[in-house]
Amino acid sequence: MTKVKIVYASITGNDEDIAYVLTEKFEDLGMDVDMSEVSQTDASDFEDTDICVVASYTYDQGVVPEEALDFYDDMQDLDLNGKVYGTCGSGDHFYEDFCRAVDEFSTIFEQVGATKGAEPVRVELDPEQDDIDHLDKFAEELVAKAKEMDD
Ligand SMILES: Cc1cc2nc3c(=O)[nH]c(=O)nc-3n(C[C@H](O)[C@H](O)[C@H](O)COP(=O)(O)O)c2cc1C
């Protein structure tokens, strides 16, 4: 069974909601899904999965959340060749660097050899129906990419 690991960073719950939406969708698609909060997760968990997903909010001037920094640093030592990745997250257009943490995580995934399975999804605050539709499509694309790489 294809394994999916979803790691989220969330203070006020928006990214946790995003992670739940994705978990449900991946389960509907028949995936074996595991979801965890970033400060409670070892980056090396990504080495034991097929599809790697990060859902993170962005904080002060576009930085990765403080509780995600260790995870972010540890990701740089991974070898994720052969894995599919997707990044997403919630932000607020009030700030100049909208959802920049999403791009920061994409950059790390690229550096450690993972293959992008879908374009990043950026959500304005809490996920509404059109965001949920977008996240569902994101999950479908990640699964399709993992299947393609398995063939
Ligand atoms: C002090 C502060 C700084 C923030 N900086 C940014 C930012 O630079 N870019 C952005 O897109 N959102 C920024 N945000 C908005 C959060 O990313 C947004 O509220 C997000 O939905 C929080 O996600 P969560 O509910 O998962 O914690 C900031 C929020 C606060 C309180």
TrEMBL record:
<feature type="domain" description="Flavodoxin-like">
    <location>
        <begin position="4"/>
        <end position="143"/>
    </location>
</feature>
<dbReference type="GO" id="GO:0010181">
    <property type="term" value="F:FMN binding"/>
</dbReference>
<keyword id="KW-0813">Transport</keyword>
<dbReference type="InterPro" id="IPR050619">
    <property type="entry name" value="Flavodoxin"/>
</dbReference>
<comment type="similarity">
    <text>Belongs to the flavodoxin family.</text>
</comment>
<dbReference type="GO" id="GO:0016651">
    <property type="term" value="F:oxidoreductase activity, acting on NAD(P)H"/>
</dbReference>
<dbReference type="GO" id="GO:0009055">
    <property type="term" value="F:electron transfer activity"/>
</dbReference>
<keyword id="KW-0249">Electron transport</keyword>
<dbReference type="InterPro" id="IPR008254">
    <property type="entry name" value="Flavodoxin/NO_synth"/>
</dbReference>
<dbReference type="InterPro" id="IPR010087">
    <property type="entry name" value="Flav_short"/>
</dbReference>
<comment type="function">
    <text>Low-potential electron donor to a number of redox enzymes.</text>
</comment>
<dbReference type="InterPro" id="IPR029039">
    <property type="entry name" value="Flavoprotein-like_sf"/>
</dbReference>
<dbReference type="Pfam" id="PF00258">
    <property type="entry name" value="Flavodoxin_1"/>
</dbReference>
<keyword id="KW-0288">FMN</keyword>
<keyword id="KW-0285">Flavoprotein</keyword>
<protein>
    <recommendedName>
        <fullName>Flavodoxin</fullName>
    </recommendedName>
</protein>
